[in-house]
Design a protein that fits this description.
Layout: E1 2-6, H1 11-22, E2 26-31, E3 44-47, H2 53-59, E4 65-68, H3 76-79, H4 85-106, E5 110-116, H5 146-165, E6 169-174, E7 177-178, H6 191-201, E8 207-211, E9 217-218, E10 221-222, H7 223-235, E11 242-244, E12 250-251, H8 252-263, E13 268-272, H9 286-292, H10 300-319
Parallel strand pairs: 1-2, 1-4, 2-3, 4-5, 5-6, 6-11, 7-10, 8-13
Antiparallel strand pairs: 9-12
Helix pairs in contact: 2-4, 4-5, 6-8, 6-10, 8-10
C-alpha cells in the first residue's frame, strides 16, 4: 500500500502521514517545507513546489493513493484580509490542475481532495444561530472568500476528471480542524490556536482581544476525528462531497471562555476591529451519518485541553 501525501509538511498532512504509517502504508510526502514541530515519519519526503507540473508527474506512481491537501491557506487574518486573494487562487488552483493531470497520466488508484466549508454561500451564513451548511446548499454559489471560490472550482474540476477520465475521486469539506502541532502564530493560525496563544501569553486578570463582537459562531473538529472521517470516506464507494466537521457550534466569545477555563485564567474580553468571515458556520452532518455511518465522538473541550497544553508549552519555550 503506497500513499502520496501532498502538503505533508502542514498540520493535517503531517498528522495524516503519522496515521498512514501506523496502518502500515509506505508514505511519500511532499511540501515546500518539513513539518515545523516534529520529524516526519514519511518513508520519503520531497521538498518541492507542486506548482511545478513536472514534479507532480515525477511524484505520482501508478496504483498509489493520493491525498491532496496542499493549498495556500491560513486563518481569517490571511484569508479574509483581501490582500492575498490573487496568490491564494493562483497557487492552489495551479497545484490542483497539476496533480489531477499527473494522476490522469499515471493511472493512480484513488485521489482524495480536501475542500473547505468556505465554499458555502455567504447568504446562508448571516444568522449566527442558524447557518445553513448542508452539502446541497452550495449552489447558487457565493463563497465568503476567494479561497472558497478556488476550492469550489477545484471540486468541479475533480469531478470533471472523474467523469471524463475515470479518476476515482473523494472530496471532503473540512470545517475548522484543530489540534496540537499546528500553526499557532504568525497570521495563518486558525481561531482555536490563536485563542490558546493569546490566553497562554496573558497574565491572569489581563485583557483578551477578539475580532468583532465575538458573537460570530463556528464549530471546530479535533484532528484525530478529521482523520477518522477521511479514512471512512476513502474506504467507501462514495465520492462525496461531504462535510467533515463538528456540529457543536459555539460563539467566539464562548470559545474564549472555554479556553480560559482550561487555562485557569480569567481575562477581560476586549472587542476590536478585524476580519471575521461569515456570521455563522457549523457542519451539517446528516449526509455523512447517512452515507458513512460516522459522526464525531468527542466534545470541543476534550480537544482543546491537549491543544492548549501544547501551545502553552510552545509559547513558554519561545520566551526562554
Amino acid at each position: 500500500m503506497e500513499a502520496l501525501v501532498c502538503g505533508a509538511g502542514g498540520f493535517i498532512g503531517h498528522h495524516l502521514v503519522k496515521r498512514l504509517k501506523r496502518e502500515g502504508w509506505f508514505v511519500r510526502g511532499v511540501d515546500l517545507k518539513y513539518p515545523e514541530f516534529e520529524e516526519t515519519l514519511a518513508d520519503d519526503f520531497v521538498i518541492g513546489d507542486l506548482r511545478d507540473a513536472s514534479l507532480c508527474r515525477d511524484l505520482v506512481k501508478p496504483g498509489c493513493r493520493v491525498f491532496q491537501l496542499a493549498a495556500d491557506m491560513g486563518g481569517a487574518g490571511y484569508v479574509f484580509s483581501g490582500e492575498n486573494d490573487a496568490v491564494i487562487m493562483h497557487n492552489s488552483a495551479t497545484i490542483n490542475l497539476n496533480m489531477l493531470e499527473a494522476c490522469r497520466l499515471k493511472g493512480i488508484g484513488k485521489i482524495f481532495f480536501s475542500s473547505s466549508a468556505c465554499i458555502y454561500p455567504a447568504y446562508n451564513q448571516q444568522d449566527p444561530d442558524n447557518p445553513v451548511c448542508s452539502e446541497d446548499s452550495a449552489y447558487p454559489a457565493q463563497p465568503d472568500s476567494e479561497y472558497g471560490w478556488e476550492k469550489l472550482f477545484s471540486e468541479r474540476m475533480y469531478f470533471a476528471y472523474a467523469r471524463n477520465f475515470g479518476l476515482d475521486v473523494r472530496i471532503a469539506r473540512f470545517h475548522n480542524i484543530f489540534g496540537p502541532l499546528g500553526t499557532w502564530q504568525g497570521g495563518r493560525e486558525k481561531a482555536p490556536a490563536a485563542m490558546c496563544r493569546k490566553i497562554a501569553a496573558a497574565d491572569d486578570g489581563g485583557e483578551l482581544e477578539i475580532w468583532g463582537d465575538g458573537e460570530q459562531t463556528r464549530s471546530f473538529l479535533y484532528i484525530d476525528e478529521c482523520l477518522d472521517g477521511i479514512f471512512k470516506l476513502m474506504a467507501s464507494n462514495w465520492s462525496g462531497p461531504v462535510n467533515i466537521g463538528s456540529e457543536e457550534m459555539v460563539s467566539i466569545n464562548q470559545l474564549a471562555e472555554m479556553v480560559m477555563a482550561i487555562a485557569g485564567k480569567k481575562l477581560r474580553i476586549v472587542h476590536v476591529d478585524g476580519p471575521q468571515g461569515v456570521r455563522g458556520r457549523t457542519s451539517d452532518n446528516r449526509l455523512i451519518e447517512a452515507k458513512l455511518c460516522w459522526k464525531p465522538q468527542q466534545s470541543l473541550e476534550n480537544g482543546l485541553v491537549p491543544t492548549y497544553a501544547w501551545i502553552a508549552e510552545q509559547w513558554k519555550a519561545g520566551r526562554k
